[in-house]
Specification:
Length: 179
C-alpha cells in the first residue's frame, strides 16, 4: 500500500513523471505524449505550406495593388504578410519540438498548401482571393484542432491562437471587399 501511495502523490503518477527524465534525445516529447506525432507533424507541415503561400500572396498584393483605397489595402496586405510569417515561424518551431523537420521545399509548396496562390491585377480580386484563403485557413485549423483534441494541448493551443488571427484577417478582407 505504501508503494502505491508514493507512486500516486496528489493524484499524479509519480513514476510516469520521473520516467520523463529518460530519452533525453526526444526533447519536449515525453512518454506521456498522446497524439500521433507523425500525423501531427504532417498536418503542421501542410499548415506551414499554407502560411508560406499566404505570405507570398499577400506580399505580391502589397507590391502590386493599385487604384482607389490602395494605400489602405497595402497596409492590410503588409500587416497580414508579417502575421502569416509569425504563424509560419511558430509552426516550424513546433514541428522541430516534436522532433520533426519543417518542410520549406518550394517545389512542393503549392501542392501541400490548403490555400491557393493569386496573381490577380484587380484590387477587388486580390481582396476576394485573400478572403477565400483566410476562410480556407480557418476551416483547416478548425479541423486540425478537432483531430488533435486533448492529445497535444501545446499544438492545439497554438493552432487556436493562429486561427483567431486568421479570423481577424477574414474580417479585415470582408471590410475591404465592401469598400
Amino acid at each position: 500500500m505504501e508503494e502505491t501511495k508514493s507512486n500516486l502523490a496528489h493524484g499524479f503518477d509519480v513514476a510516469a513523471i520521473r520516467q520523463a527524465a529518460a530519452n533525453l534525445d526526444d526533447g519536449a516529447v515525453t512518454e506521456g505524449y498522446q497524439a500521433d506525432r507523425e500525423a501531427v507533424i504532417a498536418m503542421l507541415n501542410d499548415a506551414l505550406a499554407t502560411e508560406l503561400l499566404c505570405i507570398l500572396r499577400y506580399k505580391r498584393h502589397y507590391y502590386t495593388v493599385q487604384g482607389p483605397n490602395s494605400a489602405q489595402m497595402r497596409a492590410e496586405f503588409l500587416e497580414h504578410a508579417q502575421q502569416e510569417q509569425d504563424h509560419a515561424d511558430r509552426i516550424a518551431e513546433r514541428i522541430v519540438q516534436l522532433n520533426g523537420s519543417p518542410n520549406f521545399n518550394p517545389a512542393t509548396l503549392s501542392a501541400r498548401s490548403h490555400a491557393e496562390y493569386d496573381d490577380s491585377d484587380d484590387a477587388q480580386a486580390m481582396v476576394r482571393a485573400d478572403l477565400i484563403a483566410e476562410r480556407v485557413a480557418i476551416e483547416s485549423y478548425r479541423q486540425m484542432i478537432a483531430v488533435i483534441g486533448d492529445k497535444d494541448p501545446t499544438t492545439r493551443d497554438m493552432l487556436v491562437e493562429i486561427m483567431a488571427v486568421e479570423e481577424e484577417h477574414a474580417d479585415d478582407m470582408r471590410d475591404l471587399l465592401a469598400m
